[in-house]
Amino acid sequence: MFNKILIANRGEIAVRIHRTCREMGIATVAVHSEADASALHVKLATESVCIGPAQSKYSYLNIPALLSAAEVTDAEAIHPGYGFLAENAKFAEITNKLGFTFIGPRPEHIRMMGDKIEAITAAKTFGLPTIPGSDGALSDPDQALEVAEKIGYPVIVKAAAGGGGRGMKVAHSAPALRQALHIAMNEAQAAFGDNRVYLEKFLQQPRHIEVQVLCDSHGNVSILGERDCSLQRRHQKIIEETPSPAVTDAQREPLFKKVAEACAKMGYLGAGTFEFLYENGEFYFIEMNTRLQVEHPVTEMVTGIDIVAEQIRVAAGEKLRLPVHSVTPRGHSIECRINAEDPEKFIPSPGKVTEYFAPGGPGVRVDSALYPGYSVPPYYDATVGKLIVHGSTREECVARLKRALEEFVVGGIQTNIPLHRKLVATNAFLKGDYTIHSLEHYLTTGRL
């Protein structure tokens, strides 16, 4: 087992990883930009290193600075968290070559699943169902029109190196498709330095279902259930829950089996998430995230498994301490992402936190790096915390979530807590009846 781990991240996820490390008796190294000198993860860690100016490209995305910090502190391993360099195959490769252990998947799997076209091709090889669409990248508009005529409109153009909704455009006709291709390719080039796009059938009212996996280097695969992440704004998840209120045992078991077989065929290592769109009883693979997910706590709440601890153990060469194949969940869990932003206009709201009170009580967990007097910097993602609740049933879980949201107080900055309070009170949410388009519809009409 490792004696010291460098956490190559910031904010609530850096705090969350630190806590597991300390419980395992592992010392931690926090890295921080100049803007994060007073951040909670810096205050809690065993030691800390400043790695550069506020801008991410000079600090949290600065591979030489991160590796230098690991070297000068004698860290043995690096945990990337999520975001920043977590799915950067080059970073993982260099980390391992320099003698540190990258706490994550093998570089070849990060690279494979980081390219959406290659990921879909691999998924087909592994026997996973995929959405009808183009075979690989599109070379010209005429080719796209031919594919669209074959699979039928509407269709969606997606960036091969995409993520977060960038480089994605829906088209309902041939003229609209020509325009969508032009816009998507320009967006993809600007965001990812890669203008390749592909085409898929656009599903009308799907849900977003993802399956959490953990794999070790001894061939063991464990499926930790599914999460429903359908409540999204601009392809960014807002609320996640497990198990999904829309999926039955008869539907999830064959899916889990296919995912486990895919992991075994890949020889996958560590934590990962297979993401699917689900409509009319059918699942369609869309991508795989080769890292820890933001919403991993809901899975931890219903399984009792510390996913970060298992990541660290399998990276150290140990066997999973979990049942092979699927883990039976206990009860229900829901997570609300807490963002520092205007709850109606969604404009970021950095600034000094003047008041902070986190809810508590049975089945309530808050992952956050906020504290009174802390100044939220304007340079990074708006997510400043997560509220996670657990109950024996979904009804109990929702009631607990409402109560916890009522208690949650963050002063000095704006947050999206008021939006969460409204959403969880809607009839559609109470019934678990929503799709990936529901939140956008709610923001436009007031009805989920």
Quick take:
This protein has 448 residues and is of the alpha+beta class. The protein is 35% helix and 26% strand. Strands 9, 10, 11, 12, 13, 14, 15, 18 and 20 form a 9-stranded mixed sheet that branches. The chain has a 5-stranded parallel sheet with strand order 3-2-1-4-5.
Notes on the structure:
There is one protein chain. It is built from 15 helices and 21 strands. The chain has 448 residues and is of the alpha+beta class. It has three domains: 4-85, Rossmann fold; 132-201, ATP-grasp fold, A domain (Dna Ligase, domain 1), CATH 3.30.1490.20; 207-445, D-amino Acid Aminotransferase, Chain A, domain 1. The radius of gyration is 21 Å and the shape is globular. The termini are far apart.
